[in-house]
Amino acid sequence: MGEVRKAIAKTEQVIFMVNQLQLFSDNEEIEEVSSNEVKYMLLPALLAYFHNLNTHASRLETVVKAKSHYKDFLKMCKSYKVSSVHIPLDVEDDEESESSAVVPASNPSAMDMQVMGLQRNSKIERFKQNKEYDSRLKELLAAVEKDTVDDEVKREFYLTQIKRWINTALDEIESLNMEIQILQHMAAMKKQGKGASSGGSDGAKGAKPTPKKAFRPFILTKDAIQKKVFGLGYPGVPTMTIEEFYAEKVQDGTFSIPNSGPASGSLQGRASDPDADAREMEGEDAQREKREEEDDADLLQGARNMDAYKDDHRRGWGNRHNMG
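Now predict its structure.
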């Protein structure tokens, strides 16, 4: 059994014993409660705190119980006139159907700005009070831990704790109200989603949009030898040859297969014929030699022009110094 659940069980047991002894009554005020009994007024707040920490039950059930106990604590404090605190009203009944839950409007213009301002001022005021309470509790704790404690000091210590927990309860109820609405809304959306998935036409039943395939970087190599080399250096990155890359693109429809043989100079042509570059260069050299043998006039004139250009534009610093 978890520590939180043990704390919940023990707190509930103490509350039951206090109720059996009838230590508190609706027609009493705080002055009529003895100093040794004042501390038991904290029990509902502690139970709410422990419920909010519980992770072994559904979250919606947990927050509803926590809020209920915090409100019981505030009602007791108001009944005994420890504080004239205003107990927050529920936005909706806890037992209301989950499907009717409404999430608060996210647009500030849809809310009463004056109410928001009052809530903000109340939070600031509680924050200031809590700093004072914490400082005073620190002083009183040193006195309470002594062997002999004055009754008035003990009473002030417990009452200050109660006032500190009143502020905590107000903040927690506000937070829990928002969480309850969100949880109820999520449950309603989940129920609607299940209903939608079970209904509809037979053709569309269970149909889901095909997710796009995420792009994964890879190393493109010229041939299988380069693929092995780069694959060893980058084991986490896929490696493929040009031919494999083209084949993959044809398969997924990015590239189309040409009607005739591979086009000269195209990616797919190079992939299917890796020696095309070498044969093309050999063909150009052979054609040039043939033109030289036939004394091609254009080729001879181009060679003469290049020789003349080289004579007029010699390299080196010496030629640059003779300029001008």
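The radius of gyration is 43 Å.
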